[in-house]
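=== Structure Prediction Worksheet ===
Name of assembly: unnamed complex
Input type: mixed (protein and possibly other molecules)
Chain count: three
Listed entries:
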Amino acid sequence: MFRKLSLVYKNSLIINCINHLHISEFSGNNVVRYKVRLKCVKSTNDVHKSNNLRKRNVPLVKNLNENVLERTTTVMKRWEEEKKDEGVKWKFLEHKGPVFAPPYEPLPKSVKFKYNGKVVELSPEAEEVAGFYGKMLDHDYTTKDVFNKNFFKDWRKVMNEEERELITDLQKCDFNQMNAYYKEVSEKNKNRSKEEKKELKEKNEALIKEYGFCIIDGHKEKIGNFRLEPPGLFRGRGEHPKMGKLKKRLNAEDIIINCSQDSNIPKPPSGHKWKEVRHSNTVTWLASWTENVQNQVKYIMLNPSSKLKGEKDWQKYENARRLHKCINKIRDDYQKDWKSKEMKIRQRAVAMYFIDKLALRAGNEKDEDQADTVGCCSLRVEHIELHEKKDDKEYVVVFDFLGKDSIRYYNEVPVEKRVFKNLTLFMENKKGGDDLFDRLNTMILNKHLSDLMPNLTAKVFRTYNASWTLQQQLDKLTNEDDSEAEKILSYNRANRAVAILCNHQRSVPKGHEKSMEKLKEKIDSKRDAIKDAERQVKDAVREAKHGSVKEKFVADKKKKLLQRLKEQLAKLEIQETDRDENKTIALGTSKLNYLDPRISVAWCKKYDVPIEKIYNKTQRDKFRWAIDMAGPEYRF
DNA sequence: GCAGAGACTTGAGGGAAGCGGC
DNA sequence: GCCGCTTCCCTCAAGTCTCTGC
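=== Predicted Assembly ===
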């Protein structure tokens, strides 16, 4: 019924749009609807007195907005409680089921696989898996022993008796023709004609139209990943012990469907049956399967633009805002705990300090068959170095470890003396491979955090500190008189501060040096053009002084051109700074997952920057709730 | 209190699409 | 209209955290 995010006030449902409040007042079975222009409302009483407020001309909506927003927390609490009680995520769910990966197309006969220099004709099963490897021949993965060993072991499992007997050494396998063939296909695809591209696009759009949406509680919502993962070789990150293992092709018999009992149940491909059809409305997934490499359940879920995901996102940031209200008390408490007699409490307090100050992840324990990465609770002695003095700074801790996705975290941090002393104590009589916090794990930590504030976990600190940093940096860096480009640079710098805090790195983009050089050349030639234009303006002004209307017109035109060139130069210089500062930092992750979008929306509204300059289409879809909700006055 | 399963979020990489300059 | 670069968006791995059962 209502697509906008809504708030409840007294007996009314209030939907806050950019210029209007849409209010539906409930009285028994009757619903009275008002659409109120924000500028015309003085207080909440005005809304309830009349439904003809558009005629009134009383400025100021602040009172109403604040009253409504003040009640948000209460309303959310109630919603949370309601949902918790029932555990219900939806009442009706209907979808068409997932799209399977296209079937394997055998290689042309001309593409040969050779073993020990001799052509060997492979069975279709063995050929398909060999093709996965052949495709990756140029990749770094195929130079790694673990990858090769795992691949070869799994490949042999799909071979027939004869192949298994013959092919015993990966070194003797020649996948070069397969590799060349796949490159050729890729090249052909790139050079598809306009008509072919159009046809392909239409086919894809038709597929999305049919399978890309579901009906959930009366709304048509986009599905996030309606295509099942195709078979291939597992590409774990970092030194993953399972890299190269075969990810098997999925059949209907592997898939569990989740939908309403009274909906049109998705049909499996003919001759097949779903593993199970379930009607569980306490979960949000539409289909699931267990992948064979890590034995983990994978899901088909809704797109981030959906109401369900949007609500969860909102709750996440409200939770982080709640932390803001008690952060000082929590900080005081953990600082006191640095002196605790109990080792367990001291360790917990130091870990909390790291999570709060450095935005470290919680650091769950990991199995042997996963890459060796760590977070706060799983730090080992070998991951930190203590320096009483380093580069004129006292009590410096040097962190050096591999975090999520095997991304290196390196940071030299001056810490409080008491933290330093505690760390020395924790490290006493331990070897490099021993746990730094041997009395702590994420469960103990999160249990303690939830006692301090409902729903508080280690992750909330990351969200809180990221959003708080953005707000502070925007306040500090934004100058009202700046040009739009300068304001956007300030925004990106604030975003960058968060990305650095969260250690969101990226590899230097291919051709970065080259593109910087080109940009510099452009800037130089723009500077030359400005010098030239300045000379021309000087001449034109001199001539205009004694000349006719025409000469004055020419002089004006030259001045305008000069002005335009200067603006273009400023933009290019800003672009150069921005691009260089962004070389190894990824802004997207923090923007999408950690920054309360209402901060950005409010900033755009306050400083008159189009929201399109900050969020692209997908991001605007995801943050629709925030765009509708936040006014220029919003503070995190 | 612990382990394992399940559910969901976070994350970097890479291919496709789009756009600006020539 | 083509080319090359940038941005977008999808993919799927890798986290966090909760729940359940013993």
